[in-house]
């Protein structure tokens, strides 16, 4: 195989600067939204004492899950020794770091007392999966940075041993990280919509899909920016296949989760709520998560993309990736908010009412500041990636694009 | 008696952990006005005298006065503040739903007055440390009412999930939030099977020094820990007794001679979602 060379972004198009400026603007607006919410309290959000985690958590968890998945491509090249993915390993690493930083930023800025971040970093209750996650997240940043170093340092990269070792380490760590993220929900014994060990593998499968989708979209954007063909047709076909496999895995774990719940009559209520009667949550599940996020990307990748088909391989890949990400946000919305909206079963078999809205489906309407803060997390990830691609050679050098 | 000073201008404050501060009776320290500039030696001497008098008054006399102000709190039964909380005790509540009158909310009102919680205007966002549930059996339409609050579990899910350890359980069974290290992540609210916790959504003013509350932190029933440590009973229990319904009993579940322990040993009681293994300290009859 030809020697891979890497490049920094140097010849900038107005398109590149425009994208950076757009992300900077979204971040500035998001920070404004944060200060507004911080000043007035969460009363200005749609959150309440029943829906305690709102839209910021939807974005934060989505980005954190996608972050671990973005490392896929690097893992496939280092751990599974697939040379076709090696040119994209560096990009995969830096994108993973950026997405995680974006997600964590949103998570922290949505705390009731964000200024106490130092408390969270210094005072731990190790029975809490949240406390483990603080180590898993910071560890991920350090390990992936070290992994990138082994890929980019000439001496270390030459032998490849260090890269392989760090690749394995990062791969194991990212599995632990997503297990930790899924377990935030899986460990909630009292919430019928969660409380399941399958939340962890479901989140891992979802992370593969969303991480790949982000990687593909950044690569396609960079193809345009560099006016080079960064992905060969062979790689495009491989990515399309991966989308099919990952989306099938998400559908499999989703099916098993709900079938298992449907088998136990105690969960019929919550299942009927999510799958049939939940209004926006039912729509987010079937239309957003199942159809847009998984089924359509599978159909596009399997049947509609490639030479002589409805879409070119690249276009099909781009559309499938965008749809997977929309589906990902829907999945997070139905999981996080739908799961809280269904009332706690205080006295099983009895109907309860109270001034605290017990026994009722909780209502929640996302407020603008919440959405802006969440979008700012995506923009932080994209801006950080853009800047990183400019300052260090993370991108492979490709063929000059035709026309 | 050791004292803990809590300055009223603190917006959050102290939640007692296991040690010797549980008897925290808040005393507003007498401070000289900030704009006084003393230059005259006579004035300085007088100011020293006034300061000393103020310190003497607040440390020696005020606690007794404050204790008396709590009404029927039996100061003689209070655990000395220099002794740690003991796991030989397990504070708990027994609530008889048959005696809880539908429409009565004396316990809820008393909790609000005691802990400085305004009556809820916004059901979804205002704090509710205790609330009454109207329960209906869908099979036959039978209804009853029962109050519900933090169940002060032995295995509290809120304590398990709290990343910083702000949610904690005292040795004597009372589950509290340390408002100094609560970061407002709300994971405890996700984990609590009883919806017993509230998040403070708005800035607050005029908090009670012994019931620290503040925007951005999570809070819940403290079993009136300031009263319990002074040998008293929670405000809800006291208010329920005053109505004549006497549906609530407070006491030490481990003390075989206490009324609560005797009744729990005699009658069939139920605990809410005991199937989750949380071992709540709140027992119910007739639910």
Question: In short, what is this structure?
Answer:
The complex is a heterodimer of chains A (403) and B (287). Chain A has 403 residues and is mainly α. Chain A contains 14 helices and five strands.
Oligomeric state = heterodimer
> Could you say which structural class the secondary elements and strand pairing of chain B correspond to?
alpha+beta
Relative helix content of chain B: 10-25%
Element-level helix/strand string of chain A: EHHHHHHHHHEHHHHEHEE
Strands of the largest sheet of chain A, in order across it? 1-4
Distance between the termini of chain B: 42 Å
Number of strand elements of chain B: 9
Q: How is the biggest beta sheet of chain A arranged?
A: 2 strands, antiparallel
Describe this structure in words.
Chain A has 403 residues and is mainly α. Chain A has one domain: Formate dehydrogenase/DMSO reductase domain (Formate dehydrogenase/DMSO reductase fold, Up-down Bundle), CATH 1.20.1630.10. Helices cover 69% and strands 3% of the residues of chain A. Chain A contains 14 helices and five strands. In chain A, strands 1-4 form a two-stranded antiparallel sheet. A two-stranded antiparallel ribbon of chain A has the order 2-5. In chain A, helix 2 (55-70) packs antiparallel against helix 4, helix 4 packs antiparallel against helix 14 and helix 9 (199-226) packs antiparallel against helix 10. The longest helix of chain A has 31 residues, at 233-263. Chain A is globular, with a radius of gyration of 21 Å. The radius of gyration of chain B is 21 Å and the shape is globular. Chain B has a three-stranded mixed sheet. With 287 residues, chain B is an alpha+beta fold. The model of chain B is unreliable at 1-39 and 63-73 (pLDDT under 50). Chain B has helices at residues 41-69, 106-115, 157-161, 187-191, 225-229, 235-243, 259-266; strands at 91-96, 130-136, 143-149, 167-169, 175-177, 197-199, 218-220, 248-252, 282-285. Chain B has seven helices and nine strands. The termini of chain B are far apart. Chain B has a domain at 91-285: Alpha-Beta Plaits (2-Layer Sandwich), CATH 3.30.70. Helix content of chain B is 25%, strand content 14%. In chain B, helix 2 runs antiparallel to helix 6 (235-243). Chains A and B meet through helix 5, helix 6 and strand 3 of A and strand 2, helix 3, helix 4 and strand 6 of B. Strand 3 of chain A pairs antiparallel with strand 2 of chain B, so a sheet runs across the interface.
